[in-house]
Amino acid sequence: MSSDSNSTVIARVAAGELCGRSINGVRRFLGIPYAASPTGEHRFAAPQPVAAWAGIRDTLKPGPNAPQRTRAVPGLDVAALIGDGWAPGDDYLTLNVWRPDDDHTGLPVMVFIHGGGFVVGSKDAPVQDGATFARDGVVCIAINYRMGVDGFLPIPGVPTNLGLRDMIAALHWVRQEAAAFGGDPDNVTVFGESAGAMAIADLVTSPLAKGLFRRAIIQSGHGGMTRDIGVARRLVARMAKLLGVAATRDGFASAPIEAVLDAIETVSLPTTRIDLRGSDGREPVFGISRFVPVHGDDVLPVEPLDALKTGAGAEIDVLIGSNAEEMNLYLVSSGVRDKIGRLIAWLALRRSQPRAWSVLNAYGAGRQSGGRALTDAMTDLVFRWPARRFAEEHRGRTHVYEFEWRSTAFGGELGAAHAVEIPFVFDTLATATGPEGLLGQTAPQELADRMHRLWIDFARDGSLPWAEFDRDTRQVYRIEAGSAAHEPAMPAAAYLP
């Protein structure tokens, strides 16, 4: 790698040379392909190698991302969290690399996988700018992957879990090319939030990802949101019917992309009735997303929790955690929490949880409104307790955190909601503060300094300032408080596997 006086920088990877840019002490290479374009004959195929190019490839702009459709949320700057929506183009299986503008080698590598319910998001959202990690001595990489129909719909005749296969291909690229950017390929930490964290938890257990990373940071995610392929095929049938095509590769390939995005929106509506419950009567995703990874293939031969019990991923150090009030992002920002009573709360929950009345009672229905009981219950059912279950079953080194700082957005009611920790992890508070900022008007820089440093120290050598989690001591580190303590089991424990 070399730099010149006009701040362009050159790096060489196996497929050819790259031209990036140095800005404020960070070298940036944006939109580097890690796999061939997933279009034409490569659509609905496993990720294919990148063809070599002649000359120097420009990596000064982020480039396209996966097809998606985003919607505004009144009072919230969504673009800061998930990006500006769909940037059309064929070459979107790409990644960004940020590294310090120096000649150091052997640097820790951190690979970020974005969230967005497996249907929206990209590597380029402002809140997750990896330059802050590069500034502090890390090679930071963020990836795009296929989503929705192309990434997570198990169409007959199509390889399953194509989105996860994309992530695995990107991690192979990282292993091969990290040294070209000063990184240590034997010291890779994957980290992600929400759907990205769910995917990482799955990859911890995947035989196809074995040896590709040393550590994993799982933010508001876990391994409990996968479907049996047979159950997910119900979604295939519904999508095919909406599109008026055969439930085959050729059928879905024939549908215009805008029609596909329309259909995704339709099946994602809470009013769309589709039974995605498993044999136990539970819907493991609670309706938050219809498109999730499936188990029962070569990527995830068994459900992740069962794989952990047999020692899968034991060689990986895991840092996993949640936010204290996760569901506020969905139920406070929409106004639902304070509009619904106990009956509507029960109707909403019973679609996913067969013992809905019992759950709501366990979370204070009768002592507080049905909407608030539902919000508290779903925070634990969807996020907090499954993360602890993942920690319990992981046979390797495992640490658990809780992020409890409360945002003042939405009149102070948003609190420690889903995604609120991301600007602290990346030390990008300015992207998420302001009149419509996720964090409210202001947020404590000192907390961002500490949380950002915790993530870097863990990625560097596994260091963390609190004890490992086990079933007996149940040590959970609260980020704002800066201390760990025993955490008792939650009421949700009685209702989840």
Automatic annotation (TrEMBL):
<feature type="domain" description="Carboxylesterase type B">
    <location>
        <begin position="11"/>
        <end position="481"/>
    </location>
</feature>
<keyword id="KW-0378">Hydrolase</keyword>
<comment type="similarity">
    <text>Belongs to the type-B carboxylesterase/lipase family.</text>
</comment>
<dbReference type="InterPro" id="IPR002018">
    <property type="entry name" value="CarbesteraseB"/>
</dbReference>
<protein>
    <recommendedName>
        <fullName>Carboxylic ester hydrolase</fullName>
        <ecNumber>3.1.1.-</ecNumber>
    </recommendedName>
</protein>
<dbReference type="InterPro" id="IPR019826">
    <property type="entry name" value="Carboxylesterase_B_AS"/>
</dbReference>
<dbReference type="Pfam" id="PF00135">
    <property type="entry name" value="COesterase"/>
</dbReference>
<dbReference type="InterPro" id="IPR050654">
    <property type="entry name" value="AChE-related_enzymes"/>
</dbReference>
<dbReference type="InterPro" id="IPR029058">
    <property type="entry name" value="AB_hydrolase_fold"/>
</dbReference>
